[in-house]
Amino acid sequence: MKSxxxxxxxxxxxxxxxxxxxxLLLRGHYxxxxxxxxxxxxxxxxxxxxxxxxxxxxxxxxxxxxxxLIPIGLAxxxxxxTLPLLFGLPPMTGLWLEEPIPVIGMIGSALFFDIGVYLxxxxxxxTILFTIALND
Length: 136
Description:
This protein has helices at 4-27, 35-53, 55-62, 69-82, 109-134. By secondary structure, the protein is mainly alpha-helical.
């Protein structure tokens, strides 16, 4: 579907939705939200772009195949989940820096776990949807 209205709207919505997904990612280790919801919003942004401009153009924006995000995300979340074992703590125990970072707040292993989930969700959703779209 090549609609001039949808293409114009997508030009403005893509950065706004990606910014909102990043906000959900950072908010998630304090409140509901996080990697899963943020990843879904980011995926929706790219799917909307693909509806308006075609899957090939969206793949040019991404630069890498979405499938490559899955192992990267799994590695990040595995490291963040097992890192407490090095300190004699149970897995998935939250480790936090002592000083908060301006704007972001406290940084801890929960944030890195959420980043891993974020990347896995984007990779899985876009791989599935782009595979279906390219095979039509």
